[in-house]
Design brief:
By secondary structure, this protein is mostly helical. The chain has a domain of 170 residues: MetI-like (MetI-like fold, Orthogonal Bundle). The longest helix is centred in the N-terminal third of the chain and has 37 residues. The chain is globular.
Length: 269
């Protein structure tokens, strides 16, 4: 008897292998070009863009002893990841429920939407002075700035998810006597999940994008702090290495969200 799941597994593995090959085909030539321009022909001066050897030296420096900019790579990555996860968690815990509420209730939308439209265009950087006044120079101010950056996509996508639910499903649930709670738990939330997870991924990316700005607020650890100190030291190798780790951690956390999405809504494939 034919097993569709068994047939799907090799197809999925083949697809992943193909994507991996495409990624290598895109990245390897860029790495070779980088090495040639900076280390062989010296077309690009090391003061403007680091060579691979400069980045390796920076990697060794930050990984040994006292590290760089106040800590080792592990300490810097942990501090940044902690701030991002805390800001992201608060943003999702506030933005997603508000988006669901605004999408489901016309009254809630009429009440909350004017305030949201007022604050939405304000860039996260603009909140830094107020964040310092409200929370001081501790982690609270940084988490607040990250929260604001991640809050907007979480709310918008949750709102859109509710509005995209087929009204026929809602009507059918009501006809069969579903209570308000049952409508929320069995129709509203499951029907909105694809858009909610899209919002989560955008929120995670916004959190990491805002990290450097957040760590301008009196940081003594973190990848953003490393970038700031390295720029003051005119240390291109360390700047690029810290940038790479911001990208790595952002990609890993986004991938974790994608795995969670597959488990939460397996019917999407």
């Amino acid at each position: 008897m034919h097993d569709p799941k068994g047939a799907a597994a090799p197809a999925a593995s083949t697809g992943r292998l193909r994507r991996f090959r495409f990624a290598l085909a895109a990245i390897v030539p860029l790495l070779v070009l980088w090495y040639v321009l900076t280390s062989v022909t010296h077309t690009i001066s090391p003061g403007r863009f680091p060579s691979p050897n400069d980045v390796l030296q920076a990697a060794r420096q930050i990984s040994r002893g006292n590290g760089y900019a106040g800590g080792t790579l592990a300490a810097q990555v942990w501090q940044s990841s902690k701030l991002v996860l805390m800001g992201f968690a608060v943003a999702v815990g506030t933005g997603a429920p508000l988006g669901l509420l605004m999408g489901w209730s016309r009254r809630a939308e009429a009440l909350l939407n004017p305030a949201f439209l007022l604050v939405r265009p304000i860039p996260p950087l603009a909140w830094i002075p107020l964040a310092i006044l409200w929370f001081g120079l501790g982690d609270g101010a940084k988490i607040f700035v990250i929260w604001f950056a991640a809050f907007v996509p979480a709310l918008i996508n949750s709102y859109t998810g509710v509005r995209n639910i087929d009204p026929t499903l809602v009507a059918a649930a009501r006809v069969h006597g579903a209570s308000r709670l049952q409508l929320v738990t069995h129709v509203l939330i499951p029907g909105s999940m694809p858009m909610i997870f899209t919002g989560l991924r955008l929120s995670m990316q916004a959190s990491w994008t805002t990290l450097v700005a957040a760590e301008l607020v009196g940081a003594i650890f973190g990848l953003g702090h490393v970038l700031i100190v390295a720029s003051l030291d005119i240390y291109p190798g360390m700047i690029l290495y810290a940038m790479v780790w911001v990208g790595i951690m952002g990609a890993l956390m986004t991938k974790a969200l994608a795995l969670l999405e597959r488990r939460a809504i397996p019917w999407r494939g």
